[in-house]
Design a protein that fits this description.
By secondary structure, the chain is of the alpha/beta class. It is 45% helix and 15% strand. Strands 1, 2, 3, 4, 5, 6, 7 and 8 form an 8-stranded mixed β-sheet that branches.
Length: 295
């Protein structure tokens, strides 16, 4: 059985900032997530995971986010939506896709049609937003995969070291939130956020001995969230898949202090500075619990 896998879930720009801070806080206390034999990233997690798999310093990644947040507190790199983007229709379609009624692929294809209809920045502009960190970068030597969904038929795909797809385009497709960012053209087809299948996709790490899963959550709205129970059930099924394959799993989720910093909308770019600090603090705290697990 292969040794260590790192799974980084989706969570928008807030999740990118928190996961980056978390990695840096853990590294300060001897837990180097760059040592994972396999890194799986979905959406926000793909942006963070690609850099870690490439061997980038978590401290340098934190410094870059702080610099971006200071220069443009509420703007997406490369041009993007207002931080208060309306996610209502997206949440409705995601709940439908995860409800278990009918074909999951058909429900995701409906999400794909929504993504294709939306008014979004050009693909080139969105991919350029990843250029600061991934432009021209070859795939990591260590195994890395990021997830995406085909907008036309809802099929789930993973891009990895053997896919022959440019790394920046692969990560951009994984981060292409329907209705907000443009689906990315790869080999003549258009792909959207892998979080439309699952925010975590932890089951891709089945077969690894040790799996560390990082799961992002936002603050709870006053009204019932139709996605909350769907997401919980999906997460439990993925964890069970890893355990049944013989793996041990530890999960890190944002603590209450971090969630308070995040607010309700993980797409709010203005929350990045607070989120990266929350991640740093929590990484330093979590290190003692995880040191023996990750050794």
């Amino acid at each position: 059985m292969s040794r260590r896998a790192l799974v980084l879930g989706g969570g928008g720009p807030v999740g990118i900032a928190w996961e980056t801070g978390l990695a840096a806080g853990l590294a300060e206390h001897g837990i180097d997530l760059r040592e994972a034999d396999f890194t799986v990233g979905t959406s926000a997690g793909s942006a963070v995971g690609a850099q870690l798999a490439l061997g980038r310093s978590p401290a340098d990644m934190v410094a870059a986010i702080k610099g971006q947040a200071a220069a443009a507190p509420a703007s997406a790199p490369g041009g993007g939506p207002a931080p208060a983007a309306d996610l209502t229709e997206l949440m409705r379609l995601m709940a439908k896709a995860g409800s278990g009624g009918g074909s999951a692929e058909a429900a995701r294809a409906e999400l794909g049609q929504f993504a294709l209809r939306a008014q979004t920045p050009p693909e080139e502009t969105f991919i350029a937003g990843f250029g600061r960190t991934l432009s021209g970068a070859a795939w990591p030597t260590r195994r890395f995969a990021c997830t995406a969904v085909d907008t036309s038929d809802g099929s789930f795909v993973t891009w990895d070291n053997d896919s022959g797809v440019p790394l920046a385009a692969a990560v951009a497709s994984s981060c292409s939130v329907p209705g907000i960012f443009p689906p990315i053209t790869i080999n003549g087809r258009r792909y959207m956020d892998g979080g439309m299948r699952s925010a975590t996709n932890i089951d891709l790490a089945a077969g690894y001995e040790v799996v560390l899963a990082v799961v992002v959550r936002a603050a709870e709205a006053a009204q019932a969230n139709p996605m909350a129970e769907v997401s919980r059930q999906r997460l439990e099924a993925e964890l069970d898949a890893v355990r049944k394959a013989g793996g041990a799993v530890e999960v890190i989720t944002p603590d209450d202090a971090a969630v308070a910093v995040f607010g309700l909308n993980l797409m709010d770019f203005s929350r990045r500075a607070g989120a990266v600090e929350a991640g740093l603090r929590q990484g330093r705290t979590e290190a003692a619990r995880l040191k023996a697990f990750w050794k």
